[in-house]
């Protein structure tokens, strides 16, 4: 089998100045095969954009889904992060967390929608993230539910602050979330300490279910690594795009 066709794709690099963050932020944008500015497309917005493209191979997966499996074409927007500021941006306790949410839901969204043929309803936007990227994606949806109602979480760092935010909600029937966690993620080392992500995700699963979220939850053997997430990304995309 020739895989050459999966690597012939269009990825555009952009940058915008964020007033909220006071800095330039880089984007990388996957345009599907046959992209037509007169059409419109669902869109996946990824935290850790560089990692989703380079380690998650999301563009290759998207191309194959579109060309070989009849999935309707979609656009991917990867929002790059300064790794030194990642916790400050993504963690609910982070110094720039609220400003990052403002940048993402207002500045970045406006920038993309004024330049690309993306669909602009909440049901046609998916937020995707790994670890703390999953955390901030869920919080963006909770804070901006008129704009975002679908979340793809790969081993989300759903710790105390996130569980408290969910506990404040009485009805999450508007939310669709794909939640993947590895069975080997019981002692994940982070710059904030070592945490049992498996237990945290099990708790969040229960809370989301009680609040009637549209939920796909899956536990599989796997560590807190892109080698695990990359293999499961296709299923999460397929499930959310069909909602």
Automatic annotation (TrEMBL):
Matches recorded under Gene3D superfamilies: alpha/beta hydrolase
Classification via Pfam families: Esterase (PF00756)
Domain of life: Bacteria
InterPro entries: AB_hydrolase_fold (IPR029058), Esterase-like (IPR000801), Mycobacterial_A85_antigen (IPR050583)
PANTHER family, sorted: ENTEROCHELIN ESTERASE-RELATED, IRON(III) ENTEROBACTIN ESTERASE
Name this polypeptide is given: Enterochelin esterase
Source organism per UniProt: Insulibacter thermoxylanivorax
């Amino acid at each position: 089998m020739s895989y050459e066709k999966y690597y012939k794709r269009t990825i555009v690099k952009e940058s915008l100045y964020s007033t909220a963050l006071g800095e330039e932020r880089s984007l990388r944008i996957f345009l599907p095969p046959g992209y037509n500015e007169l059409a419109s497309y669902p869109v996946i917005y990824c935290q850790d954009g560089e990692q989703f493209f380079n380690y998650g191979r999301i563009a290759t997966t998207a191309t194959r889904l579109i060309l070989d499996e009849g999935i309707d074409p979609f656009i991917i927007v990867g929002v790059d992060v300064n790794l030194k500021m990642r916790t400050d941006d993504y963690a609910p306790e982070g110094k720039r967390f609220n400003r990052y949410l403002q940048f993402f839901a207002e500045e970045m969204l406006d920038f993309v929608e004024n330049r690309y043929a993306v669909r602009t309803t909440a049901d046609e936007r998916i937020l995707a993230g790994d670890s703390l990227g999953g955390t901030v994606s869920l919080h963006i949806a909770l804070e901006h539910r008129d704009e975002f109602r679908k979340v793809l979480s790969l081993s989300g760092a759903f710790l105390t602050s996130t569980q408290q935010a969910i506990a404040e909600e009485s009805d999450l029937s508007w939310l669709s979330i794909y939640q993947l966690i590895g069975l080997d993620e019981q002692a994940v080392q982070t710059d904030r300490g070592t945490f049992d992500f498996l237990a945290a995700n099990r708790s969040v699963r229960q809370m989301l279910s009680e609040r009637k979220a549209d939920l796909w939850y899956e536990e599989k053997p796997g560590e807190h690594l892109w080698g695990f997430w990359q293999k499961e990304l296709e299923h999460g995309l397929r499930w959310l795009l069909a909602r």
